[in-house]
Design the sequence.
């Protein structure tokens, strides 16, 4: 074997339920030391430290602060932007640098303490955490929302993903009740996996009926029990080294897991810009390239973890790769973001760490997928206890061509997808529509009439002809 072949030799996870919990810097240090210790590597010798962006706290120099805590002086340092694909992109870069002979060891870590932030917020207290950035930098968007999305208050994933869900539901010809029942059947097995996962945030198995009834809507038709739980205190880290270093450290062969191949692809950044709201053009291409690089197929996978922030992410992935949502292998090894926990941009570190542990125990191959932004970014990674394949890189293997968005519009249109935003009290607040315009462009619009909002939740609105008026910024639809 090539001595430069990268392998994963250390992984760590931590979930803190006591409140208030530690700050992200403490969690980074804990999982970093544990991952390095598992491989027999002293943290001081780390040659690369890469961190996933934390939403919990904006540090002045997060990587430098962790390096100082560990006593390390890494020549390579990186701090990501906000994205669910960030962990895989950092892992991919680390693997590539090791394969090129630039590094022998690389740590990738992430931590969120959003449950603790909520603890302090509810008490109207400021989190007493260290090294705050001053001045506070801009939020870590790779790209800010479209001005028309901001005008229509459409920037929360719970709304954008729900719009795509209703578009897919209509395309399938499902009723509202059929979609909800199918969602419960698909996601209930995930709760059973989470119940057996000691690191999961929600460790209670649920029936399909419990998941979709008896709990409040957050972005209709999504109920609270079927969306990612973001306010968690969780951290994870993985350690990659060269095979040569693994040999020197004495890491047993059955404790090494290899990144056989991975790929990255992009759909459109704006929801309304997607050519087909209910399906993904990019997922299939990312999967195809990842499997081709790995020299394996979906059928070769012994375990799967499909990114599950919302049901539509699971469904579009299954549609794109021909995966049965009830596949006996299951869709997750952790329990998924709604149950194991969805710590902002970090989840894929948890799924990768869990997959590594599973493969070490049983051998074979595993697929870990990632989603970023509004189902925009897709990363597919094949891990294995058998070396081989070729790594790939972060260059997009596919980039979707966007449909034009018209910011201000007046006239006739047709609903392409929609949601109803709900407040924390469970009350419906406003409808948010994506509209097909006569010239094949798209626009956003609000529904403000309480009678029409109620109607939107009681029958299929996709395909409905509407009349739109605008004040130049916000469009309002009626029918």
Sequence:
């Amino acid at each position: 074997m090539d001595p430069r072949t990268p392998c994963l030799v250390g992984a760590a996870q931590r979930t803190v339920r006591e409140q208030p919990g530690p700050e992200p810097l403490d969690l980074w240090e804990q999982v970093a030391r544990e991952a390095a210790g598992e491989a027999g590597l002293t943290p001081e010798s780390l040659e690369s430290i890469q961190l996933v962006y934390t939403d919990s706290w904006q540090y002045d120099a997060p990587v430098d602060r962790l390096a100082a805590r560990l006593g390390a002086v890494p020549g390579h340092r990186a701090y990501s932007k906000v994205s669910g694909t960030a962990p895989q992109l950092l892992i991919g870069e680390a693997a590539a640098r090791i394969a090129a002979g630039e590094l022998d060891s690389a740590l990738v870590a992430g931590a969120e303490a959003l449950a603790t932030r909520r603890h302090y917020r509810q008490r109207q207290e400021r989190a007493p955490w260290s090294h705050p950035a001053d001045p506070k930098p801009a939020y870590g968007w790779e790209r800010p929302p479209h001005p028309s999305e901001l005008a229509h208050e459409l920037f929360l994933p719970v709304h954008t993903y729900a719009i795509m869900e209703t578009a897919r539901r209509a395309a399938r010809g499902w009723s509202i009740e059929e979609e909800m029942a199918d969602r419960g059947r698909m996601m209930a097995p995930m709760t059973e996996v989470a119940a057996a996962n000691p690191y999961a945030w929600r460790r209670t198995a649920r029936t399909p009926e419990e998941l979709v009834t008896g709990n409040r809507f957050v972005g209709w038709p999504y109920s609270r029990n079927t969306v990612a739980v973001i306010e968690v205190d969780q951290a994870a880290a993985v350690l990659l080294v060269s095979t040569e270093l693994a040999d020197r450290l004495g890491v047993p062969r059955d404790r090494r897991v290899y990144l056989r191949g991975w790929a990255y692809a992009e759909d459109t950044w704006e929801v309304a810009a997607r050519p087909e709201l209910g399906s993904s053009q990019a997922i299939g291409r990312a999967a195809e390239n990842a499997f081709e690089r790995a020299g394996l197929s979906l059928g070769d996978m012994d375990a799967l973890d499909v990114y599950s922030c919302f049901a539509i992410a699971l469904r579009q992935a299954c549609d794109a790769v021909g995966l049965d949502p009830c596949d006996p292998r299951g869709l997750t090894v952790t329990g998924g973001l709604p149950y194991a926990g969805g710590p902002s941009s970090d989840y894929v570190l948890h799924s990768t760490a869990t997959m590594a542990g599973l493969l070490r125990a049983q051998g074979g191959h595993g697929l870990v997928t990632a989603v970023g932004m509004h189902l925009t970014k897709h990363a597919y990674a094949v891990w294995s206890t058998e070396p081989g394949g070729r790594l790939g890189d972060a260059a997009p293997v596919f980039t979707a061509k966007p449909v034009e968005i018209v910011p201000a519009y007046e006239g006739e249109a047709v609903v392409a997808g929609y949601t109803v935003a709900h407040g924390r009290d469970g009350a419906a607040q406003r409808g948010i529509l994506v509209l097909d315009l006569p010239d094949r462009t798209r626009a956003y619009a609000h529904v403000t009439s309480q009678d029409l909002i109620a109607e939107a939740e009681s029958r299929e609105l996709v395909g409905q002809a509407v009349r739109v008026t605008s004040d130049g910024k916000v469009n309002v639809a009626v029918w």
The first strand starts at residue 6 and ends at 15. Residues 159 and 219 are 5 Å apart (CA to CA). The mean pLDDT is 97. The radius of gyration is 22 Å.
